[in-house]
Design goal:
homodimer; 409 residues; alpha+beta; 9-stranded mixed beta sheet; 12 helices
Chain lengths: 409, 409
């Protein structure tokens, strides 16, 4: 077919840098929180490029945007894409690579005069990051029918504004019915956001699974006491309970092993004084696994530990679920296509799970789906120092090109 | 002698309540941080009462105040007293009871027309709490020669003002040479600030020892990472290190047992987000024991644990000593006098250590010293809910009266 076709690295990087200028932060990176003025400017830039490339642009009531490239035959397109919203201190690659990589594939095909049998589509989904409106991956979740549109539009953000109001105000609310266009298959190119590819010296990750996520909040209430005059046996130390829980989460993750990770990233105690036993402690627990049974096991063990701890320490504990997504397994045939395409292009490739959530995991509910990962320097993401080298980006988009051609013929 | 002599409970409580009105907080309790305007007003009130009771009032360059009641013979007085400064959210008993209990003893003797052989002295020492200027027990430390006056005067407070400037401004700097008057013996009445007397149903504590105190600050520096994409084995989690240290401190205190206590009361991690491995953590460790060898053992074990932990986790740790006081053992004869006096008055009494620091531990460097404890409701202190019932206060001051008479005859 078109085995020698390659994308244009410089053009790809140039678009990433141009989009990164919108909402650029002083020290590097950028801030384009979903449905802000900066997001609008980013949308206008990308939609402008879509028009330049001859794509038929539509958007739905969630502000999801689709650029369609007709094929020689009708039917649902092979879709690629990701998101262009960022966290508050985001990099220029997270999400953007998947969208602009898709545009680069389209331009490469345009230049070569290739028209695929099935239509192609480059999409970006609203509010993937969830940094302003919870939950994350909201646009793709609504697109696949996993959340009613009305619920999404009524979601209040951290600044009090609602999704629907913001969509209206910035003019991003489209008239295409939600769920359109239908999709034949979905492929998302994304930076890894972790250290595994770099550590392994491997260029391409063929993502097999997305970890299930369990976010919990625990609040312990004990009794504030003098650290000198209160014997250990008479203490009801909320701070100790929080720290013991954090220590347990590490032991639990190590013991379960495999893909299991466990993190206490947020912890606050009160009154937070050197010589006072804490009466209040608040912490979050982030548990993830690609295997839902093991993830449930981790949740169950944590709950049992916390219950016994609270009873032993004579304190109260309140539990709240902040987020819970089951793991997602991608279509094995799709994963094999990514792997084969990378090999055919001479790139090293490994199968791996995704530790972060992505739009692809929502699309997997409605069509065969795969993800392509490229390395993240030092595993850093959601950080202005996020970086992937031009040749690594190029390798990823060439794999995307090949997989899309493969699927569209 | 004067076995039937008793103090006046109502007069005692009335003085405690009057002094508690100075710097009174809206919800109860009071705030008279050392060398503030509120402290000055408190000093003026107490010095006024000293004059009313016929005491010869002197103050030294540290602002320590002494009210002398001459005896039938000259020589160093038997001294009692404590402090009248409070923490920011203090109660009306901590410190104040020891000073106003001393005045109540004097008034009781005055009414009965009793003149003791040795002089008596009621003192209050500057900045016992250390809530504005470190270290705590500063006035009594200077009085006994444990800290050069110049160093104390140059000490900068949390608000940037120096001790010397404050003493000048509020006019509390006296002209008596530091260390005067000399002291024959010292007895301090104080609330327990812990739950042991109340839990044991005992009226009087005969304090044998004051716990040694070791305050340390630990700062861990690791690497911030994505909580989903970073495998456990590649983490350098400063938050985990802090929590594991807090968990270890509890195990350590339990294992050493006896009087050993260990507390992590302050802990902060950064960036403090649910899905980010912490790169910074800061915590304090408060270790106390009446046995200095065991306290040193606890410090050594903690240091070894932290070193191994930091190495295993691949993070940096910085250590700083915030405070270190050796334990103090009171004169056995003095402790026996407290015990005997309590028994003679028909009160239940137990020997016990003090978990908090007190001026008496400084005085113990220069004279036979003892402390009398009365119960604290729910063990609460440094809190506006601090409370000791009038009859419990009365019992303590009657014991103080008896011990002082015993020492002064």
């Amino acid at each position: 077919m078109h085995d020698s076709l390659r994308i244009n690295r410089q053009r790809l990087v140039s678009r990433l840098e141009q989009l990164g200028q919108i909402g650029a932060l002083p020290g590097g990176g950028c801030c384009r929180l979903a449905l802000t003025e900066e997001d609008l400017l980013g949308r206008e830039q990308v939609i402008g490029w879509m028009h330049e490339l001859g794509l038929e642009v539509s958007s739905d009531a969630m502000g999801n945007v689709f650029g369609l490239r007709p094929g020689t035959e009708p039917g649902p397109p092979v879709m690629t894409g990701s998101h262009i919203d960022t966290v508050r201190t985001g990099g220029i690659y997270d999400g953007n690579l998947g969208v602009l990589g898709g545009l680069e594939v389209v331009e490469t095909l345009n230049e070569a005069g290739i028209v695929t049998q099935r239509p192609l589509c480059v999409a970006f989904f609203t509010n993937e990051e969830g940094a302003r409106f919870a939950p994350d991956m909201m646009g793709s979740l609504v697109y696949v029918g996993g959340m009613p549109l009305e619920d999404a539009l009524a979601t209040e953000g951290i600044d009090g504004e609602r999704v629907g109001e913001c969509l209206e105000r910035i003019g991003a609310r489209g008239d295409a019915p939600v769920g359109n266009p239908e999709v034949h298959a979905f492929v998302e190119l994304h930076i890894e956001q972790g250290p595994i590819l770099e550590e392994s010296g491997i260029a391409i990750g063929a993502v097999e699974k997305v970890q299930g996520i369990s976010w919990q909040e625990l609040r312990f209430t004990g009794t504030s006491n003098h650290a000198g005059t209160t014997p250990m046996r008479l203490r009801h130390d909320a701070g100790y309970a929080a720290m013991a829980t954090g220590t347990f989460v590490r032991e639990l993750a190590n013991r379960i092993g495999g893909d299991q990770v466990g993190t206490v990233g947020a912890l606050e105690i009160q009154p937070n004084l050197v010589n006072v036993v804490a009466n209040q402690a608040h912490l979050t627990v982030d548990l993830r696994n690609t295997d839902n049974e093991r993830l449930k096991q981790a949740e169950t063990e944590l709950a049992a530990f916390v219950e016994q701890l609270a009873e032993r320490e004579g304190i109260e504990v309140k539990h709240r679920t902040l987020a819970r997504f089951d793991p997602v397994t991608f279509d094995p045939d799709m994963v094999a296509r990514v792997e084969a395409s990378a090999k055919a292009l001479g790139h090293s490739v490994m199968r791996m799970p995704s530790g972060a959530g992505h739009d692809a995991q929502m699309l997997a509910r409605v069509c065969p789906t795969a993800m392509i990962f490229v390395p993240s320097a030092d595993g850093i993401s959601h950080n202005i120092n996020e970086y992937t080298a031009p040749e690594e980006l190029e390798a990823g988009v060439n794999v995307l090109l090949r997989v899309l051609l493969d699927l569209a013929e």
